[in-house]
Amino acid sequence: MSLLVFTLIFPLLGAITLSLFPRMSYGAARTIGTASVGLAAFTTALVAIFWSAAGGFPFIQTLWQWIDAGDFQVNFSLYLDGLSLTMLGVITGVGFLIHLFAAWYMVHDLEGKPGMARFFAYMNLFIVAMLLLVLGDNLLLLYLGWEGVGLCSYLLIGYYYETPANAWAAFKAFIITRIGDVFLAIGLFLLYVVFGTLNIQAILHAAPSVLAQGGTLANVAALMVLLGACGKSAQLPLQTWLADAMAGPTPVSALIHAATMVTAGVYLIARTYGLFLMAPAVHELVGIIGVVTLVIAGFAALAQTDIKRAIAYSTMSQIGYMFLALGVGAWQAAIFHLMIHAFFKSLLFLTAGSVIIACHHEQNIFKMGGLRKKLPFDYAMFVIGGAALSALPLVTAGFYSKDAIIWEAVANGHGFLWAFALFGALITSIYTFRLIFVVFHGEAKTEAHAGQGLAHHLPLAVLAVLSTFIGAMIALPLDDVLPHDMAEASHWVELFFEILAALVALAGVAIAAVLFLGSRKTVDTVVESHQGQRAWQLFHGGLGFDTLYDRVFVRPFRATARAHEKRDWIETIVNIVPALTRGANTGLAAGQSGRVRAYAMIMFAGAAVLLALLMFG
Amino acid sequence: MNELSMVYGMGLAALLFLLGFIGVVIRRNTLFVLMCLEIMINAAGLAFIVAGARWSSPDGNTMFILIIAVAAAEAAIGLGLLLQLQKRFRTIDIDAASEMHG
Amino acid sequence: MEFTFFAAGIVALATTARVITCANPVHALLYLITSMLALAIDFYALGAAFAAVLEVVVYAGAIMVLFVFVVMMLNLNNETVAREKSWLRPQLWAGPAAAAGLLLLALLWALIFGGIEYGGITGEELAAREVGMNLFGPYVLVVELAAFLLLAALVVAAHIGRDDTDQVSDAAARGERVTTNVRESR
Questions:
Q1: Within a domain: residue A271?
Q2: Which parts of the sequence belong to the NADH:quinone oxidoreductase/Mrp antiporter transmembrane domain (chain A) (predicted)?
């Protein structure tokens, strides 16, 4: 059990080693980077076995006291329960597979270039920060990991920093998530003031007695935490950064922007669920945010030409489902979908990466086409991942996790949200199979060379297996951590709604087949019409949120700044300081005449003054 | 034996010192400046001698010997600088060497 | 003793005043030597015979000879004296003299009303032996420091006084500013 800390130590050692020897060969960097996460995954497996053998009670490993300032005491301690173990498994397991794939993928980028170790150093550091986030037993430690993953996300999005657009994308992601982080920090301050501690379990324990049900304090605190989660998880209104974050290498998109970091918001809300139970209005808002995001992101995904951006919008949409689950009180379903989503979305991203490499860094889906015959393995993997994403019935893992959420929505009496979620499911299967049909069917438009090697095949195969119903058979030890899902209805009603959801998913596939399989005349006609053009532009740009934020925040801010640039009384006050300094400089420089006799005179005057002071003072 | 008030000795030292100072400030010829510095150092030596005589202590004379050592060092370096000044600027005007102004 | 002290003191003051006002360097140097001899008499009157001898031998004898050498090297002539006179304008005197007067007042104030009880000076002679005992007894470290100072002065004088005329003329050939005749050409 005390092995728990080693899940942190291995990647940390990897990151440090890789940072200290930046000029090591690619082979060495790849081995160290992958092996450290592999060891962490192995340790996680051992910890999971020991933990369940010991009865599955929460386990706290205190490493040292971090802060001890008066009443404010924070321990550096790790907290292991069913929820953090689930996250631990996802992060190290999926993380290891993605590292393995990255070892294959990055050869095409990195071999022989400087900074080969940098990529794996960042990736390992990310794993450390993410583990800290899920294992921290207090909110401050969680916040440390929270900022750490933000930093690594920034570094990895801007990994190809020679291209200015990538650096701007990194800035955008960093700044927008930072807005959310500020809200989270305010939330932490508030919680500390109210509870006098930042220990999560202590806060959850004390919440019902300290906070009034639906009181202002509870609402504000929960809202701050929610906004923090929105920033990290790319939910409305802070969702605009995720699509641009695809500037990073594809394994990064798979690891950070699909499987782990973006789901940190879901983890945070699930972790502090007691707070949201005390704030029903905000709790309701979680579900609404999720639904709105999932529909908006679904529409945006419909109109993407870049394969990675399309998958990024689908990630946003799927996290919207998780938020919906949290909002309707289906805590366990949210975490379950988080895990399944990590499987199939990293599968999709890695396959996309494989396709991109095969087509020589081509990301535009309309320049691919007909890859089914040349890349049969990638085709199979993408179909499995896409089917899981669309939640095709019975054989896919997504069916069990996503339809559970949709069912919980209606079972908990949120019919309105349910309708939107079902509509979102329809869009999901349309855009997913649009991708499949455009990329892999139709006439071939480009040369393609299939990826080779174990590091390429193994991660995809493992993730593909986990994306089928086999992955859905993993039972998560969440019963002691999160409340039971409350759905109470007859078996037949549930069956009816599940069949309905399955039919919707299949309908989406059929619509996509009609629209995109074959000549695509219907779509072309619609898109080329005037209204169609405008709608396409709107969807393509993520429904204009970037433009909206630019108009509402950026431009007024810059206009104000420019208006006050010249005539600003604060600046006038500030300018006194340099004016004084400059004046003093002029005076002193004049005294520095270079004439020795003048200096002697000044010395003499000083001596006279001193003597006079001594005598008469 | 007749006694001499210390004030006269010290007053003489102060007068010599100030005369030396006035010379340092008003003369532009470096040679004169150096001579006036010698006067000032001498005045300081006189003050030590006077104080040593007042308290019948050998410390005053000891310090005077040290002051002579300082004066010798100062004169050697000062005259060396004077020669360099003459060599480079073809003048011994001390204000000519005023390039290090602010 | 008192008479000797005051007489020599007046001579010292008068010759010093001439040093700072004299235009001819050689004359000024002679006045300076006279002033030092007068001071040596003062030392003797105060009972510091050893210091008086040192003043004559080392100061007036050795250090002043350095000045004489330098005066010889400077090729002084009537022109120099004329320029010296032009530099000694009366309005230059006002500021420093006023400041010096102020400081003199302060010093005298300190001497007379400083609150320290000043006794008399008997002029009892101090043996050179005592000075030597003192120097190599409690002050031996200071003697070491003086030795260091003289060594450093030796090195510095050797460095500054070195003959690098070639470099200077080279620099002049490259057009760099090493000679300024502005003052002299006036």
A1: no
A2: 137-428
